Amino acid sequence: MPTSKCERREYGLVAFKKFLIVSFLAFKICIEHVCISYFAILNSYLSMTRLKVNSPAILSVGYEPDSESLQLEFPGSAIYEYHRVKPIIYMGLMHTESKGSYFDSHIKDKYEYTLVNESR
């Protein structure tokens, strides 16, 4: 066990780093029998990379928390960006069983949006 203040601080930092590594490797969010890798969620927070989702109504979802921008790709390849969407709405969308119903009740006609990419 470290004795000096400097050694205790260094010991604490090493322990914290180990904790973070183990947490990132092991942590999964499981809701309603659907597991989403923490890395996938972290990746979507760091960039506007869209994650493919299992939904007939929505093909992929991306979120940028700094600008509160939500991108949704719909069947037919149309991509829309919704503005000023709170993180809780994004997390709700990612964790719901019916993404189409959640979109209809919590996002559609409630946020301003722009067309990012038209259908091909």
Q: What report would you give on this structure?
A:
With 120 residues, this protein is α+β, with helices and mostly antiparallel strands. The chain folds into 2 domains: 1-27; 32-117, no CATH class. Helix content is 40%, strand content 24%. The protein is built from 4 helices and 7 strands; from the N terminus they run H-E-E-H-E-E-E-E-H-H-E. It has helices at 5-26, 38-46, 87-95, 99-106; strands spanning 28-31, 34-37, 51-52, 60-64, 69-73, 79-82, 113-117. The strands form 2 sheets. Strands 3-4-5-6-7 form a 5-stranded antiparallel sheet. A two-stranded antiparallel sheet has the order 1-2. It is globular and about 25 Å long. Mean pLDDT is 75; it is low at 25-34 and 43-47.
The class by helix and strand makeup works out as: alpha+beta
Total strand segments? 7
Distance between the termini: 64 Å
Can you write the helix and strand succession as a string? HEEHEEEEHHE
**Which value, in Å, is the CA radius of gyration?**
19 Å
Strand % is: 15-25%
Q: How many structurally independent domains? A: 2
Largest sheet: 5 strands, antiparallel
Strand order of the largest sheet: 3-4-5-6-7
Shape: globular
Percent of residues in helices: 40-55%
